[in-house]
Each structure stands twice: as structure tokens, then as C-alpha cells.
Amino acid sequence: MYGPHLDPAHIRDEDLDEAARQGERMLAWLETAREELDQVIGAGESPSGQVRARVDANGRVIEVAYGPRALRMGSMELADETLAAVRAASADAERQTHDLMREALPGYDPVAARAELEGLLDGELG
Fold this sequence. Notes:
The chain is built from three helices and three strands. The chain is α+β, with helices and mostly antiparallel strands. Helix content is 57%, strand content 13%.
């Protein structure tokens, strides 16, 4: 059912049934996967390597650590490096979460599903 060519005018009953089953599987997985998701910790590093960050699956920053040369940076550069490290950590946590979802829900691609949803919303809002 997921794909870039989903046309709401041509949705079949079978497609709706499959979407409902997939939704039910996802909800069931979320009930049991809380512990797995709580273990997801994304790690990221700034381009200079002087800032490291760790982020949980919900995007909360757990830790930011600065290397010895970070203290020599200007405030704007340090801020940019910190944001880069946090963004990299967030991307890592999201990748790990998607990997868990793919393992638990064969055939489900969270990236494709998000792109499809955004495409549908853009069509409605655009």
C-alpha cells in the first residue's frame, strides 16, 4: 500500500484492510517495544570532532561533551558544532528506531511511510 503512486481515488477495500492490519501490528509492537525504544541512544559528533552528543529515542539530549580544543572556539562556532553533534545524534537515534521497526514489522518502511504521508498532506494543503 505504501508508495509514491498512492491515489486515494483508487484505494481498494483490500488496501484499507491491509493498512488496518499494519496499524494494529504497529500498535501491538509499540506496546511491547517500549523497553527496546528506551534503550535507543543515538551518538553524534561535530565536524571538528570536538563536540560529542548523545540523544534518546524521543530526541532528548542526554549528554554533550566538549573536547579540549572546543574551548578555543568562538561562541558562534561552538554553537554550530554543538548543534551539528546533536543533529547527528538525533539522526542516529532515528535510524536505530527505524531499524527496530523494520525488524518488528516486515515490509514496513518508516522512511517511505513518512514521505508518503508528507506527500499526501502537501497535496491537501498545497
